[in-house]
Amino acid sequence: MAAPLTVGVLALQGAFHEHMQHLTLLPAPAGYSHVAAVAVRSAEALAQCHALVIPGGESTAIALAAQRASLLEPLRAWVRDGRPTWGTCAGMILLAREAAGGKRGGQHLLGGIDVRVGRNGFGTQVSQLRAVECCGPAPFPGVFIRAPIVESLLLPSDISAVPPGSATLTPGAQRISVAPPLEAEGAPRARRPPLEVLATLATLPGASAPAPKSERAPASLDIPNRPPHDAQIVALRQGRLLATSFHPELTTDGRLHAYFLRVCVLGSDADVGMPPLDADE
């Protein structure tokens, strides 16, 4: 008898119920009885999952709750092992290798995606709705609530001057939190999967004019569909890790949940229907 495909949703804080509702509506993949969404609040629950979703919420609160539940290191091991993981909004921050703008003392990160994000890049708690063109011809309703902004894509070989797990001040007076390295101490740096830009905005957050050309040398990373400025990026993938600035779980559109299941969990790039296109306000 076929078993379910179990997708865990980190249920420590944030919009985890909404993610679970979306996942249970997905059709059963071939070879599985159905998609089962389970709340993950312990290492034991995480171990029963085929994939994991980290919801939107407050990234510092989620990280602290994970630490208190003895889940932080199991989560880092999960990401380090390349298990399928999707982070939305706060989840994107936690999956980033570096995060700017945190509280004094920094915050815990899981790492895994070679990107630096900035907290609250889309403004206030009041949600903003932007049409994000991904997942096919119909625009996707992008809900941005204090959403992170992509400050920069990072070379896999980049070694930050900030010690892993610590926080410091940049010249711009932004505190930078850095995730622990994915490799064990002394181990050779593993080859990272390439970064893939999935969706961008035509303008920078808070701007009405087209985004300026980045001052960064365009040859620093050879990534197809990279926009003129990294802050325009709102969805990207690196191997089996997916991150979105916005909240697909707060809409009735399930295409991104289907994409995560099909591409990151099941490993099928066939007919994904998600071209990286620009979006207007």
From TrEMBL:
Species in which this protein is naturally found: Tilletiopsis washingtonensis
Name this protein carries in UniProt: glutaminase
Family to which the UniProt record says this protein belongs: Belongs to the glutaminase PdxT/SNO family.
Enzyme category, top tier: hydrolase
One cellular component (GO) term of this entry: glutaminase complex
InterPro entries reported in the protein's UniProt record: Class_I_gatase-like (IPR029062), PdxT/SNO (IPR002161), PdxT/SNO_CS (IPR021196)
GO molecular function, one term: transferase activity
GO annotation, biological process: pyridoxal phosphate biosynthetic process; pyridoxine metabolic process
Keywords: Glutamine amidotransferase, Hydrolase, Lyase, Transferase
EC numbers: 3.5.1.2
Lineage: Eukaryota, Fungi, Dikarya, Basidiomycota, Ustilaginomycotina
Keyword Secreted: no
